[in-house]
Design brief:
Blueprint: E1 2-5, H1 11-22, E2 27-32, E3 37-42, H2 50-54, E4 59-63, E5 83-85, E6 88-90, E7 96-100, H3 107-119, E8 124-126, H4 144-157, E9 161-165, E10 179-182, H5 190-199, E11 203-206, H6 213-225, E12 231-235, H7 253-260, E13 265-267, H8 269-273, H9 276-288, E14 293-297, H10 315-334
Parallel strand pairs: 7-8, 7-14, 8-9, 9-10, 10-11, 11-12, 12-13, 13-14
Antiparallel strand pairs: 1-3, 1-4, 2-3, 5-6
The chain binds phosphoenolpyruvate and manganese (II) ion.
Length: 335
């Protein structure tokens, strides 16, 4: 349920209303828009008497929200959520580039890629330390050592780090990590999502291989319901009948998720395509559709990568792409 307040409602009046709502065991969330203040109600609202709330002099309208996601719902929070990570700003119309290798392999590798992507305009460094691999015989990541190397790269370049957590037992290692990634395979690991709700760190939440927008938003809702509003949604391609590409990039996810939710939406064209040559056109499509950012795999020597070399860009190709994306973004701003 949302309560739309009249313009010029005072802070004291809002507080009084919040008190009434809390006395019914419901949690109020205030969202101050440009022209409107909205009080979103989370919890069992069946005991709230819509009639009597509607009649209060500060209330413009009361509406029930049909969707099961509340905190993540655009109706609760009409303005875009903007998440700040180091110098990076994600959401609210900017285009943030996140780049780096699929997995951290060595100090030279991660530092050289970090320096390269930074010079091309990336604002956040990605790199997997814990790798969810389909085969137990494939490289599983450098794990704790990988986290250390990412922090070395952060010290060297100043770039904030995003890296994937696979299990709650790893959380202590993420103290100095800036953004915690929840991979596609863990999108519905609800215990993990709850704990990330307590973590106080931004979470990059990837859409599961076969999950709907609503399921993705319900997973975001878990993190938010447990106290963390800093969730970045990531579309990384879904399973379809097509096998030529690794996954199918669902570009509709951008306008749809942005309509349904105020959370930033980033696109991962690398895991969507699985083919380096397609990363550039898919990135352009993502920006054209209004994505808030891109997370792109870049490797200093893709042919020797321990993971996902076929979809990794060289630093030179990433540089060319970054320039094209900024031209496109500027053209869109003028259009
Ligand atoms: C990754 O980003 O390296 C990764 C494993 O992604 P996803 O969870 O989207 O497959
Ligand atoms: Mn990868």
């Amino acid at each position: 349920m949302i309560i739309i307040l009249k313009e010029n409602t005072t802070a004291q009046e809002i507080e009084n209303l919040a008190g009434i709502v809390k006395s019914h065991g419901v949690v109020p969330h205030i969202s101050q828009g440009m022209h409107q203040t909205i009080m979103g109600l989370v919890g069992d609202t069946t005991r709230i008497d819509i009639e009597s709330i509607s009649q209060l002099k500060i209330v413009e309208a009361v509406r029930r929200i049909q969707e099961p996601f509340k905190n993540a719902n655009r109706k609760f929070h009409p303005l875009d959520t903007v998440i700040k990570v180091g110098d990076a700003v994600i959401g609210g119309g900017s285009l943030t580039l996140i780049a780096g290798p699929c997995s951290v392999e060595s100090e030279e590798q991660i530092i050289s890629v970090a320096r390269n992507v930074k010079s091309s305009g990336a604002k956040i460094l990605r790199g997997g330390a814990f790798k969810p691999r389909t085969s137990p015989y494939a490289f599983q990541g450098l794990r704790e050592e990988g986290i250390k190397l990412l922090l070395e790269a952060k010290k060297d370049t100043g770039l904030p780090i995003v890296t994937e957590i696979m299990d709650l037992s790893q959380l202590d290692l993420f103290d100095e990590i800036d953004v915690i990634q929840v991979g596609a395979r863990n999108m519905q690991n609800f215990e993990l999502l709850k704990q990330l709700g307590h973590s106080g760190k931004p979470v990059l939440l990837k859409r599961g291989l076969s999950n709907t927008y609503q399921e993705l938003l319900m997973s975001a809702e878990y993190i938010m319901a447990f106290g963390n509003e800093q969730v970045i949604l990531c579309e990384r391609g879904i399973r379809t009948f097509e096998t030529y590409t690794r996954n199918t990039l669902d570009i509709s996810a951008v306008p749809a998720l942005k309509k349904l939710s105020h959370l930033p939406v980033v696109i991962d064209p690398s895991h969507a395509a699985g083919i380096a040559e397609f990363v550039s056109p898919l990135s352009m499509a993502a920006v054209a559709s209004g994505a808030d950012g891109l997370i792109i795999e870049v490797h200093n020597d893709p042919s020797k990568a321990k993971c996902d070399g076929a979809q990794s860009l060289t630093p030179e190709n990433f540089d060319t792409l970054a320039k094209k994306l900024h031209i496109l973004k500027n053209a869109m701003a003028e259009a």
